[in-house]
Amino acid sequence: MLGVAEVIFLGYPDGLVFNTLELRRKLVYQIRRFKPEALMTNDPTVLFASDTYINHPDHRAVGLAALDAVFPAAGMPLVFPEMAEEGVAAHCTPYIFVSTWGEGANTYIDVSDTIDLKICALQAHVSQVGGRDIGVRIRESAAERGKSQGIPFAETFRVISLPWGREENQHVPPAPADAAEPCAEVGGEPVVIRLNNEGQ
Predict the structure, then answer these.
(1) Residue 101 pLDDT exceeds 90
(2) How many other C-beta atoms lie within 10 A of the C-beta of residue 45?
(3) What is the pTM of this model?
(4) Which residue has the higher pLDDT, 73 or 172?
(5) Are 198 and 131 in contact (CB under 8 A)?
(6) What is d(CA 29, CA 91) in angstroms, rounded to the nearest whole number?
(7) What angle do CA 18, 41, 184 make, to 5 degrees?
(8) Strands (E) located in the chain
(9) Longest dimension (CA), the chain
(10) Domain extents for the chain?
(11) Edge-to-edge, what's the strand order for the sheet holding 95-99?
């Protein structure tokens, strides 16, 4: 429905996800394997999402784990160096899209032409949605997010552009001279990595 080429399940039980070193390693492996140009994840800093909702602990844990994996770990050859022996070299992902709850956004994407497809995709998320009609709620949320920008329906993100490869970037030490170049641009089909089987 969405053109996703592959969904990878890491097998974590729903409600029991923690930001561990083991999880970071698994995410770093997938980032290095697929070499994305952009990574999308949740905002781990949101706890009280509204007066009627506390952000799910899995969502917070996954957001933080993804950020810890993508920067700086995935781009540093000296972090999990054994992966290089498996043919999975370090990779620098230049763009991080952190989904926001409206506050802290620096990017507003007009989804007016695709919001019906989003609703259909979410309705197909049977284990989470069941038979509920969530179309009204999704449209109201998207309308609220786009209001300040004059956009009928919007998705909002805090987009972080990582300065990989620049000399002034002090966070990433230079790779050894004989190391494979980790910052090559690689395109491809979108891949979704899920920590549990709740997407079925």
Answers:
(1) no
(2) 13
(3) 0.79
(4) 73
(5) no
(6) 10
(7) 110
(8) 6-9, 38-42, 48-50, 53-54, 95-99, 107-110, 154-161, 191-194
(9) 57
(10) 1-94+162-200, 95-160
(11) 38-42, 95-99, 154-161, 107-110
CA 61 → CA 44, 66, 67, 72, 127, distances in Å? 7, 9, 10, 17, 20
CB atoms near residue 61 (< 10 Å): 20
Q: How distant, in Å, are the alpha carbons of 20, 67, 189, 194, 198 from that of 36?
A: 22, 14, 9, 16, 24
56 vs 138: CA distance, rounded Å:
18
Model confidence pLDDT, tens digit, residues 121-168: 888 888 878 778 889 999 999 999 999 999 999 999 999 998 764 444
Single out the residue of 177, 193, 163 nearest to residue 77, CA to CA. 177
Banded model confidence at residue 198, pLDDT cuts 50, 70, 90: low
Average pLDDT over residues 81-108: 92
φ, ψ for residue 40, nearest 5 deg: -120, 135
C-alpha to C-alpha distance for 18 and 33, rounded to whole angstroms: 22
Which residues, 6+ apart, have CB-to-CB distance to 161 below 8 Å? Answer: 94, 95
Q: Where are the beta strands (DSSP E) in 73-112?
A: 95-99, 107-110
